[in-house]
Amino acid sequence: MNSIRPYLVRALYEWIIENHCTPYMLVNSTFPKVDVPQSSAIDGQIVLNISTNAVRYLHIGNEAVSFEGCFSGVPHKLFVPIRAILGIYIRENSYGMLFDLELPFEDNESIRSKDSDNLSIPKSKLSHQNDGPSLKVIRPNFKIVK
């Protein structure tokens, strides 16, 4: 069965855009094949502004999200495997969804059952500035949207 994650990411992205809000994506920057500016990551995580004003050529596929964006005025091509996405949420009110941490192994279930206590998302303190995906220190406030 296909993963539900890419469908949820696309649906939440569309919902956020239709409500004229700013979509932010929380990413595990240490996941294999993630190509993001590591200098902007904190505690193995990075928050990316994926709004239409902040990125170009956004593609949310079943295997990965790719786009072009600027960090400190320098353009970058970014690539994020779907399994590396930890959440997508609205910048303005923190409504959104967090996903389970995925391991870079095909056999996630056997590893998850052995090591389930070690699979929590680090409690990084993230914030955002208006000039693109950069970070300051505050704690995010996620709310469950039903």
From TrEMBL:
InterPro entries: SspB, SspB-like_sf. Pfam families: SspB (PF04386). Residues 113-134 are annotated as: Disordered. PANTHER family: STRINGENT STARVATION PROTEIN B. This is Stringent starvation protein B. It comes from Candidatus Pseudomonas adelgestsugas.
